[in-house]
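Continuing from the previous page...

OK, I double-checked the sequence for SYO1-like TPR repeats domain-containing protein against my notes and this is the correct one:
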Amino acid sequence: RISCATSLKLEIVLVKMGKAVKKRSHIRHDGITGNPELYEETSDESFSAVQDSVIQSIFDQLQSPKTEDRDCGANALATLPQGKNDALMLIKSGIVKACAPLLLDKNAAVRHSATGALRNLSTVGGEDACKLMVGEDVLTPLLAFLKKFSKVWTHAKTEHSAAENKSEKVDSSNEQFVEAVTLLWNLCESSTLAVSICDQEDVIDVLKCFLDVEKYGKSSVIAVGNLLLTLSEDNEHAVEKLKSVDTGIMNILSMNISGEASLNPRDLLIRILAAGITHNLCNGDLSLLPDNVQALVGESIKLALHENVFDSMSVLLNLIEGNSLEGMEEEADRDKHIDSVFESIDFHLSAQSSALILLANLCCSNGSEDWEDVTSEDESEVVNGKDESMPKTIAEDICALPGAILGVFRQDSSSGSHVLQLVLNKTIPIPENLIRTNNGKYAKRWKSLVLRIKSLRCDAFFCLGNLVPLLSVQDFGGVDNLFQAWCDLNQMLFQTNEASTQSDLAEAAVNTVRSITEKLKEVSPKSFEKLSEQDVRILCTAVFSCPDPSIVACMVRILSCVGVSVAGSPNEPLTENRGNIIKMIGSCLLQVITTDGQLWIVAEALDAIYDIFAEDHVDTVGNEIALLQVLKSVVEPLKQKGGCIEPILIQWHQEEAHTVCGWNTGDNENQ
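Thanks. Re-ran it with the corrected sequence; updated structure tokens here:
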């Protein structure tokens, strides 16, 4: 069957097979002045008021022969940008070219301050700022710094002793190295040119030795691991370079940790980064690796997803409010403890986000990321119900998770650790008591956690949307468990208005609901007969409350799946409840057809109408909603917009098509 909606619009998220391929999103830890999303956007006018005086002063300090001035200028630059516009204006002023040479300053404090300032510009300014910084040639001194100081830097174990002995300080050269590598990571995440330059300069050869946790410490391994993971994505040159250290990566992946409960968040993140690099080294096909390696990857993902960060945030909130500070009389001790809990949660969130993205991408190996646009108006053919225009990898050879990875999740699925529950837990919205709180001097850091949880939920929805089409119902805990998850997601999204207020989250979430809907339609269509009229009304209302057309189209597909499932076969008598559900869905789709201005969405709704009312046993419901009369009223307007209605109605019973369109049976051209 030819879908006229498909001929009108190619969906970038690969909606046809329920798979949304998501590249790794950039996770930034402890920014110099915080998370970039925390800043209010400032207008060009407000910032230009200080441009002449303050920026010129910083320029003078950065170029001063005095060490103290250069250090002061770099520190001032780190605190100046308060939003993306600020960062972009600073970069366009040429400040990067004045600050970047200080990465090679003879004074360690100046080098450290300059590295922090540049890293902060890349964080606050985001992708656009990073591309500008690459254009300002920040990579030349940055790579020179890494090559020069990585050769002489040997004292990286101080962070371990500092953690054990509070009187020791973490070595500043360690911090500077981490800042520099993280700056390079920001640039490579945002610029393919930066990745190419890193390949030319053999950055991997310089940094691969720093994957040794015992020798260089966890902070350095995390920074280098993030960078190497980015560099090795779809990059054969980097993959070949990294294959020489695959033993070191395996050592990280199989870190000998005494008991799952003692696994700290840094260890979790390090293992996930190693798992991601391993995934890249085999070009995304873990089935090529031995079962024990696959199992280590699966175990790393599973361990990362087990932690409930809401519990940790509740503990942190009690600490901030002074409810759990027994034995901490000194304010300094209290602040240190709170800082450590913040850091722990931050690394947990990073590990979980990376784990979800890795798990989502594992569902899209074996070439599925290379699907091409073959759904043009002329090329789409359907033979025996199968779209022959699809590449073979889509239509016939859909990949699944390697068995050894699934085995890890199946080991204790009876205890609630099956893959559905682990991922679904990360879609839960943050409790209201953890959002509406006044945290005093920790307010900005707390807001950063809240924003990161929202980002984590998006990752979870993308992951779940990719998993559902590939796994068996048993992997999700059975049909009842999968249907309950479907109901919970609908309630979460549509009764709380999340789908209409948070577009990024809504798109990922609604696509996930659609994937589960299609799965249930395939394995247990009768599940939808349990729906009440109120449940269906919520879905129908959501269609008109979502401002994004792609989300509306996805909601139409969901209603189509539910309607077809409830309609059943012609041999099944139509019960009153099923008839009412179909009536509500049909009325909603007709409203879309008559009111939506987007032609391709109207085509999706027409497709859905055809699917739901294809059999004679639902004709009575069609009569109740005046189906044919409404369609007849929109024929001419739709033909004037683009003539998309003929391919749909031509599939109807001949008699009904004649009734609606007034076609003459002998008029071949009109037919």
